[in-house]
């Protein structure tokens, strides 16, 4: 393992900012753990339905503050996309070629997931599975894809977004919430916040790429300012404290994004900027960097298949013949929480099996992606070294 880590470390260019990859890995793992901890599948009279422990145990709300990390992902996405586009343009690569390479990395594994679950849903329907169960499972798998749709749209708009100040989309979110929540406006106005809300951290990322976010003072202003505004909105403006959706609650901070979750996202972005220094020092160790590199190399596979892994474990557990605590039971007690934590390693093993089956669909051959996006790290380092006679034609691509 030490040799494996050293190979990845030596294949990484010295000018690569490893902290950026660490932030992306933390954001992805936060989403995975968040879904595994706050999403439950309850078996009831032959039907499986979704539930959330946050509805029954609101004292767990702080978990959503830690594990709802989408703002950090959009921050890093904006930074990486802006730098990638600038680098491609400097080398004469057209916008269409650049965008096509980036979209391929997103759309190819998504198409596989949709195809597999279309077949699974068809088989369940043909076998007489309750339609409510099929609907609950498919929603669990496919609903996170909204995030990729928004991310793809913002990526396509990177040349324009790079010129936009983050205060503009923030103002849009403010006015939308004022009309839809403060003045009882139509609910459909909230969907304007889906692109506008995530445009705020994405714009911060593009500003970061052009060195507009300098010094630790910026990080502290974002962290403290965002946290104070978010707390004020929760305490005095009636916004829910949970930063994720909770079934049965009339207002969601995430669906669509509210001013509270956008403000909280600014605080997360500030914390991310403050972590850059410590992360850079920690990732000088080959073992730590190898772990981060591998998560980034297969980030899409992990994101797309983590819900399927949880569903697979839940389905296999039904073969026992009795509901298993933390897996099939109502999430309404601390016992459920402890049991769910104990199930996490099993979910991870199931996700590892999904990774082994579907990871190849994430690996493209585009030279534009390989050189510019920063989404690949030492690909050749995770495969056996080529013979010396072919070393010149097999030089690994570090990104």
Helix content: 55-70%
Assembly form of the protein: single chain
Order of helices and strands: HHEEHHHHHHHHHHHHHHH
Mean residue pLDDT: 88
Give, in spatial order, the strands making up the sheet with the most strands.
1-2
Number of helices: 17
Beta strands, count: 2
* Biggest pleated-sheet summary: 2 strands, antiparallel
- Low-pLDDT residue spans: 365-399
Descriptive terms for the model:
2 strands; 3% strand; disordered C terminus; single chain; two-stranded antiparallel sheet; mainly alpha; 399 residues
Question: Can you offer a commentary on this structure?
Answer:
The protein has 399 residues and is an all-alpha fold. It is built from 17 helices and two strands. A two-stranded antiparallel ribbon has the order 1-2. β1 and β2 (47-51) form a beta hairpin. The radius of gyration is 22 Å and the shape is globular. The model is unreliable at 365-399 (pLDDT under 50).
């Amino acid at each position: 393992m030490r040799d494996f880590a050293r190979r990845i470390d030596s294949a990484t260019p010295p000018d690569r900012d490893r902290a950026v990859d660490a932030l992306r890995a933390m954001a992805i793992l936060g989403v995975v753990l968040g879904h595994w901890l706050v999403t439950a599948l309850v078996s009831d009279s032959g039907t499986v339905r979704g539930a959330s422990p946050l509805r029954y145990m609101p004292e767990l709300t702080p978990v959503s503050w830690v594990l709802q990390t989408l703002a950090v992902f959009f921050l890093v996405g904006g930074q990486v996309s802006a730098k990638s586009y600038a680098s491609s343009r400097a080398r004469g690569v057209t916008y269409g070629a650049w965008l096509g390479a980036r979209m391929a990395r997103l759309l190819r594994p998504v198409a596989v997931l949709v195809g597999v679950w279309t077949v699974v849903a068809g088989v369940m329907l043909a076998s007489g599975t309750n339609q409510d169960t099929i609907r609950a499972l498919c929603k669990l798998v496919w609903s996170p894809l909204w995030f990729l749709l928004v991310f793809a749209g913002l990526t396509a708009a990177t040349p324009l977004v790079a010129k936009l100040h983050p205060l503009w989309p923030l103002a849009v979110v403010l006015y939308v919430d004022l009309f839809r929540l403060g003045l009882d406006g139509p609910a459909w106005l909230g969907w304007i916040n889906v692109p506008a809300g995530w445009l705020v951290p994405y714009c911060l990322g593009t500003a970061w790429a052009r060195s507009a976010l300098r010094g630790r003072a910026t990080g502290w202003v974002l962290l403290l300012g965002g946290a104070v505004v978010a707390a004020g909105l929760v305490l005095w403006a009636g916004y829910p404290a949970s930063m994720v959706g909770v079934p049965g609650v009339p207002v969601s901070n995430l669906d669509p994004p509210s001013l509270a979750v956008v403000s909280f996202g600014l605080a997360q972005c500030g914390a991310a900027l403050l972590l850059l220094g410590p992360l850079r020092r920690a990732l000088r160790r080959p073992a730590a960097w190898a772990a981060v590199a591998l998560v980034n190399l297969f980030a899409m596979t992990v994101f797309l298949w983590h819900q399927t892994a949880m569903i697979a474990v839940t389905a296999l557990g039904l073969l026992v013949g009795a509901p298993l605590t933390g897996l099939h039971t109502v999430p309404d007690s601390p016992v459920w929480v402890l049991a769910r934590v104990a199930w996490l390693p099993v979910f991870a093993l199931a996700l590892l099996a999904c990774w082994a089956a579907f990871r190849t669909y994430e690996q493209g051959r585009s030279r534009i992606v390989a050189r510019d996006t920063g989404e690949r790290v030492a690909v050749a380092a995770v495969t056996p070294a080529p013979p010396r006679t072919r070393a010149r034609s097999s030089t690994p691509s570090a990104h």
